[in-house]
């Protein structure tokens, strides 16, 4: 079964707007990661947040983690057409170490 | 996708035939993974390896086997392909298993089973 569940499944915004994607998970984790996938390509790691962190920034990306609610959010600020892609959260399970991916959010940024 | 290559990138085969997908890395990473990606399911772990000849099952391992005889190569075999195994298969590598398990993915292998 999937560990991470992203919400929404699809998101369409205008260039310059912010995009927010959410991820919920079920078990305790070591860390949570976000990956990006352009159409027809492999996934690329964006950012990792550890279970003892609450917020992390990387360029235009902001990730939050709420372990009490077992949820995370990815915020992309000032979006660009080039941000059009699918975004996946992945959780590193504490008891197995395996990385389990959610189903992803498809983001379309219109120029 | 530097440092990790998958072959073949595209394959069409018939039900009942054996298929082997190859993942080759030049990073000398200890851990290697095979995932499949299907619409509505995201990525699902098939098998993974934590060293030469050390492998374990993921969440969707039925119908698949793997082998790792060298650090750089991780093979995924479908002994008798079925239409339900039509998918895009991704190999990934990492140099840690817990704590900060960041994966680097290959470009994917698209398999169609007729």
Description of the structure:
The complex is a heterodimer of chains A (111) and B (114). Chain A is mainly β and 111 residues long. In chain A, the strands form 2 sheets. In chain A, strands 2, 4, 5, 9, 10 and 11 form a 6-stranded mixed beta sheet that branches. Chain A has a 5-stranded antiparallel beta sheet with strand order 1-3-8-7-6, with no helix packed on it. The model of chain A has no long low-confidence stretch (mean pLDDT 91). Chain B is built from no helices and 11 strands. Chain B has 114 residues and is mainly β. Helices cover 0% and strands 56% of the residues of chain B. The mean pLDDT of chain B is 92. In chain B, strands 2, 4, 5, 6, 9, 10 and 11 form a 7-stranded mixed beta sheet that branches. Chain B has a 4-stranded antiparallel beta sheet with strand order 1-3-8-7, with no helix packed on it. Chains A and B meet through strand 4, strand 5, strand 9 and strand 10 of A and strand 5, strand 9 and strand 10 of B.
What order do the helices and strands come in, and which of them pair?
The complex is a heterodimer of chains A (111) and B (114).
Chain A: E1 5-7, E2 10-14, E3 19-24, E4 29-37, E5 43-50, E6 55-58, E7 61-66, E8 71-76, E9 85-93, E10 99-101, E11 105-110
Parallel strand pairs in A: 2-11
Antiparallel strand pairs in A: 1-3, 3-8, 4-5, 4-9, 6-7, 7-8, 9-10, 9-11
Chain B: E1 4-7, E2 10-13, E3 19-25, E4 31-38, E5 42-51, E6 54-57, E7 65-70, E8 73-78, E9 87-94, E10 104-105, E11 109-113
Parallel strand pairs in B: 2-11
Antiparallel strand pairs in B: 1-3, 3-8, 4-5, 4-9, 5-6, 7-8, 9-10, 9-11
């Amino acid at each position: 079964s999937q560990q991470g569940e992203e919400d929404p499944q699809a998101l369409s915004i205008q260039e310059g707007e912010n995009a927010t994607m959410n991820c919920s998970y079920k078990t305790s984790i070591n860390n949570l990661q976000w990956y990006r996938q352009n159409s027809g390509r492999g996934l690329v790691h964006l950012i990792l947040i550890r279970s003892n962190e609450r917020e992390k920034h990387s360029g235009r990306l902001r990730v939050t983690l709420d372990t009490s609610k077992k949820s995370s959010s990815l915020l992309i600020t000032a979006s660009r057409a080039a941000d059009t892609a699918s975004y996946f959260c992945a959780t590193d399970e504490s008891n197995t170490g395996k990385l389990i991916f959610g189903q992803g959010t498809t983001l379309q940024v219109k120029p | 996708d530097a440092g990790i290559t998958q072959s073949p990138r595209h394959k069409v085969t018939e039900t009942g035939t054996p298929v082997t997908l190859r993942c080759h890395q030049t990073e000398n990473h200890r851990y290697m993974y095979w995932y499949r990606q299907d619409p509505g399911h995201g990525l699902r772990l098939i098998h993974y390896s934590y060293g030469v000849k050390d492998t374990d099952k993921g969440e969707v391992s039925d119908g698949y086997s793997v082998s790792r005889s060298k650090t750089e190569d991780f093979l995924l075999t479908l002994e008798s392909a079925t239409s339900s195994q039509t998918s895009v298969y991704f190999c990934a590598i990492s140099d840690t298993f817990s704590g900060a398990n960041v994966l680097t993915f290959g470009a994917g292998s698209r398999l169609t089973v007729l």
